[in-house]
Design goal:
Blueprint: E1 4-8, H1 32-43, E2 47-52, H2 57-63, E3 74-78, H3 100-105, E4 115-119, E5 122-123, H4 126-138, E6 145-152, E7 163-170, E8 176-187, E9 193-197, E10 200-203, E11 209-217, H5 220-236, H6 246-256, E12 260-266, E13 271-272, H7 279-291
Parallel strand pairs: 1-2, 1-4, 2-3, 6-12
Antiparallel strand pairs: 4-11, 5-13, 6-11, 7-8, 7-11, 8-9, 9-10
Length: 301
């Protein structure tokens, strides 16, 4: 059975000033998602599931899903604020979605095979999809053997300034032991990559793995997500901005012994659009990838 690609596309795009998942950045109006889908098809994924907000379903079907007809099966699921376990309600005044792992939960009824999770607005690179697909095929029929693609920090820096990354620690066998959020990472004038905190600066080795929210799971992950989401809501369900994140659950499952998470190395360079000022650089990068023959243009002929 071929693995499934689960794309988190329910973000509001508030920092970017629009629905950035639908923004055409390639030479023929391709979105970042289009390149991810193309790479996933090449790597051997058999289905794509998008989690979106219901309010832009029509636009999404017209501008995105229509491109993939006859290329790969596509399903849509919806992250609704009131999609909660029995006994819980949305607190008055809450508008913010419940986080990335709540979004993942929306796929539980349509995904029954090993699956990858990615962000819609990140460019991951074709090598990463191949690494992920190969791993997912190797864990079919098992439980609790998850993985994360660990990007070399040197391949995730921004030309515009500092970045926030989840810096990963692994054991001798290559399994994830800890992820620490570092909110200000940059390459300084002396060429050294450092993260900066109030009490000083700490160097990071060039190939230090960082998380870019690219995961590999087996379907049992949905069962754990349901269980832990109930615990999350009991503790944080009355808050207006608390979120149920993927790394939080993965960390809990690792430390409880219910799962392991292998860190997979990739040589790919990440890039993405976080703010509107990032857009011209991303357009240039896609144009160069086409010029170098990495992608055809138009992408889907």
């Amino acid at each position: 059975m071929k693995p499934t690609l689960f794309v988190l596309a329910a973000g509001m795009g508030s920092r970017y000033g629009g629905l950035k998942q639908l923004d055409g950045l390639g030479p023929n109006g391709e979105t970042i998602m289009d390149y991810s889908i193309y790479d996933a098809i090449q790597a051997g994924f058999g289905k794509v599931v998008f989690v979106i907000r219901r309010v832009f379903e029509a636009d999404f079907r017209e501008k995105i899903v229509s491109k993939y007809i006859d290329r790969i099966p596509v399903e849509l699921v919806f992250q609704d604020l009131d999609n909660l376990p029995a006994g819980f309600t949305v607190p008055e005044g809450r508008e913010k979605p419940w986080g990335t792992n709540h979004a993942v939960l929306m796929g539980k009824d349509v995904i029954h095979e090993p699956f990858a999770v990615i962000n819609a607005d990140d460019y991951y690179g074709r090598e990463s999809f191949q690494v992920l697909a190969d791993y997912l095929r190797s864990i079919e029929g098992t439980e609790g053997r998850y993985a994360m693609v660990g990007y070399r920090v040197c391949n995730t820096l921004s030309e515009s300034g500092s970045v926030a990354r989840g810096v990963c620690e692994t054991n001798e066998q290559g399994f994830l032991t800890k992820v620490t959020e570092r909110t200000k990472i940059l390459r300084e004038e002396d060429g050294v990559i450092r993260f900066i905190e109030e009490d000083g600066k700490t160097p990071l080795e060039e190939h230090t793995p960082v998380s870019m929210n690219m995961w590999a799971f087996t379907p049992d992950y949905f069962r754990y997500s349901e269980q832990y989401f109930v615990d999350f809501l009991r503790e944080h369900g009355t808050e207006l901005k608390s979120e149920f994140y993927i790394p939080t659950l993965v960390d809990a499952l690792i430390h409880s012994g219910q799962a392991t998470c292998r860190v997979l190395d990739t040589p790919s360079r990440w890039f993405g659009v976080t703010y509107a000022t990032d857009r011209p650089q991303v357009v240039d990068k896609f144009a160069q990838l086409v010029k170098d023959g990495v992608y055809p243009s138009p992408l889907f002929r």
